[in-house]
Amino acid sequence: MSVKIVTVAKQLPKYSRTTNDILPLLDGWLDGKEERFIKKVKKIFEGAAVDQRYSIMDPAEVFTATSFEDKNDIYTREVIILGEQVLEKALKKAGWDPTTLDYIITVSCTGIMIPSLDSYLINKMKLRQDIVRLPVTEMGCAAGISGILYAKNFLKSNPDKRAAVIAVESPTATFQLDDFSMPNIVSAAIFGDGAACCLLSSYEEDKGPEIIDEQMYHFYDAEHMMGFKLTNSGLQMVLDIEVPDTIASHFGAIIHPFLQQNNLEIADINHMIFHPGGKKIITTVESLFSGLGKNIDDTKEVLKRYGNMSSATVLYVLERIMDRNPKSGERGLMLSFGPGFSAQRVLLQW
């Protein structure tokens, strides 16, 4: 029995700014700092390869001193709105009735909600009362693919079922106004807010790329490299400078054995569906892929247009490729990295 990804949809928040629009806001935030430091911060924003980003709050509000409680209240309110919008959009795109969903997975790491987003969506959209739900909250940028893994395993064991994976993230809600460290500055420069929904099915008649295989890959002794630290002012970004080099050093072990287990090599892959962590990671991985005759142009374009939206971002890349209607027999490789430190991989075939 095969499990297929039927469709992907995205939903953007109501606020957006170009990088050039954000630069003047940095002057107020950095007021009183050394001129050399101010120039360095602006250079980071200008060189982040992000032209525009979206947010659940006005950018001026992001740079306003508020409590963790206030920011998390905005997060809670807005992710419910975005989650409902993106699920409705995906269902309409697939032509599915909401009551045909058997499994709902919601993904987010940029705020705290109990009950989780899925419970609100069940009520707002009158999903079935026996729907199985799973919130995924602590896997960061890797969680979009993690959700697909969990949905696939559920559907593989249950024929004639349907699942929705909904990723809603707001990194702007985690911005630390009093933190002038490089991790906070770099994350502010590369991250944006957004939502995406991926619909999967084990019905024979439902069409879409089949999930051929999926695996996780865990880096030993690398918990310190990426994540959040919960402080009195909110979720403080942890982002180690060694991340790109660590990915590069493990790249062969992540990609080649996984493909070999499916009697494939990189030349057999038509579509690289890679999560855009940031400019440095893209540069690192692009150099590795280019040596194998591949490109990650869609990944670069998503970063440019929207920034890194944590778990939702790889689904934006997938949507771009699926909307181009790949030919039957073509293959795609999904790849993302997240806290742990870990990599998630999915092999698709149209």
Automatic annotation (TrEMBL):
Keywords: Acyltransferase, Transferase
InterPro entries cross-referenced by the UniProt entry: Chalcone/stilbene_synt_C, Chalcone/stilbene_synt_N, Polyketide_synthase_type-III, Thiolase-like
Domain of life: Bacteria
Catalytic residues of the enzyme: C141
Residue ranges of every copy of the Chalcone/stilbene synthase C-terminal domain listed in the record: 222-348
One family name in Pfam for this protein: Chal_sti_synt_N
GO BP terms: polyketide biosynthetic process
MF terms in GO: acyltransferase activity, transferring groups other than amino-acyl groups
Statement: the UniProt record of this protein carries the keyword Transferase: yes
Keyword Acyltransferase: yes
Domain Chalcone/stilbene synthase N-terminal: 63-200
Protein family per UniProt: Belongs to the thiolase-like superfamily. Chalcone/stilbene synthases family.
Protein name (database record): Type III polyketide synthase
